[in-house]
Design goal:
135 residues; two-stranded antiparallel ribbon
């Protein structure tokens, strides 16, 4: 399979993982302000499955910050890098065994979210929702 390992900044790393599973998506644009949980913050009633993916990912990242093997500032899930591979042919991301326990936890948070996005149809009407929809 066509595999590659990524060692880049964390937001770019997540974006590249999304593109591995959904090569035709625009992850930074599609999910930065979508539903009630994709983007900064997150509250209110879920609007659809991609919104649920973001909620679950946010919860997982919060759990990573509480993980006993993660250092609070150094192992922030939004800045920590980890090792993974992308099988472009099968659209599959695999977290690498080289990761330490904290990196693996964060990588799995991202991998599971991306698999979730791959199964959940993105709906344009749920992009840029007014804040009163998410209370």
């Amino acid at each position: 399979p066509d595999l590659f390992a990524a060692h880049i900044t964390a937001p770019n790393q997540f974006r590249r993982m999304v593109l591995c599973v959904m090569p035709d998506s625009w992850p930074t644009l599609d999910y930065s302000d979508y539903g009630c949980y994709c983007g900064p913050g997150g509250s209110g009633t879920l609007v659809d499955d991609p919104d649920r993916c973001c909620q679950v990912h946010g919860t997982c990242c919060h759990q990573a910050m509480q993980h006993p093997k993660c250092w609070p500032i150094l192992d922030n899930p939004y800045t920590n890098l980890y090792h993974y591979s992308c099988d472009k042919k099968n659209r599959k991301v695999t977290c690498d065994h080289k990761n330490n326990e904290c990196e693996m936890f964060i990588c799995e948070c991202d991998r599971k979210a991306i698999e979730c996005f791959g199964r959940a149809p993105w709906l344009p009407e749920h992009e840029h929702l007014p804040s009163n929809r998410c209370q």
